[in-house]
Input
Amino acid sequence: RQNILSLFPNISVIRVKESVAQIMDLLEDINLGVRVMSFVTVIAGILVLTGAMASGHRARLYDAVMLKVLGATRRQILAVYFLEYLLLGFGAAVIAAGVGTLAAWLIVVQLMQIEWVWLTGALMATIIGATLLTIVMGLFGTWRILGTKSALVLRMG
Output
């Protein structure tokens, strides 16, 4: 019984199991990298949205006080701000989802040349989650604003 390599000296032997294991390790690393980048992007988006909401804090404070002085109830003011935060969060989430999906498609299909898989559930969960987070954060800040004494704000404004 002779070794197959001695019978065919011009043939190279490649261990498929080791090659597949290396490819799997590489794909796992790429997957981890994409997940980390996604997480960082979501956190950055939340921080930008929080900053945008915080920058308008003084104007919202003044508007809320003026509405209170003109006779609006706390419930009416919260309803107005709820609608504002709903539209703000939904609009930002839809734009971010569209840009993110386009970027992901370009990377997956054009750069990596693999099959694109549309994840409708994940996309909808992201849009709904971002919208709800915007509403909760905004109403939390607004609730604190409504507790502010009107006279102090009117003197400053």
The chain has a mean pLDDT of 81. The two ends are 98 Å apart (CA to CA). DSSP finds six helices and no strands in the chain.
